[in-house]
Amino acid sequence: MHGRKPRTEAMKRGSEVHAQLEEEVYTSVQIEVATKEDAWGLRVWNVIQGLRTLRETGMTRELEVWGVVDGEVVGGVIDEVSFMCPDVELEAEATHARAVARGEEPPQQPRATLPTDQRGLDEYIHPKSPAPKKRKLYITDVKTRSVASLPRGASFRPTKLQLMLYHTLVSSLAAGDTPLSALAARYELDTQRTFSPAFVAQVATLADEVYYDAPSSAEEVASAPEPAGNELSRNDSLEKLWDVMMNLFIEIIGEGG
How far apart are CA 250 and CA 176, in angstroms? Predict the structure, then answer.
């Protein structure tokens, strides 16, 4: 049997917390859609803006992701994605536990870091080109609880599985391995259908008002983001907009990140 789970007071409170956190990063606006393709185009557009926010600030919230797991189309909304570790002590504990489980020597505590413009003595004696360092991506899930403590053991298992699923979906997207065709078949979408003019106009107007500041110098003109109206005019179907999103996943999180 299938059905919608009744909303409890805890669930309502959780929704309020999520809304508050999202508003710390984004400005919510209302967009009217005329077709299923418009609705999905808006969802993909929101992901595009989320990825750009991640690139510019190092953190984004409410990032929707999709993928195919064991032949089934699945999706979810990640509460927070960041290049900054949200809990350094917890990461150190997890790294130590993994090393012990593998029978390896636990890593030593890192020494105090030097200022970015200062090098250590060994770097002067043995100068070498630094190897490019892959940035870590942190996925955070926000839960509301009736007690002021973190879940442990069996209570933490559902959240752990959820985070593992998110990791799988993000990894697939960042590798360019998530086909739009699977979602199109599941939700009966015409990926080549042009977005409605009203939808494009609304997104362009509101997005430019919220996200775009007129550049005031030659340097800012050169690096200024493309106005949303121009971008949507060129990518006026779900298929084209999906390609923009996938390229950003690869650039920011995948091999280009």
Answer: 7
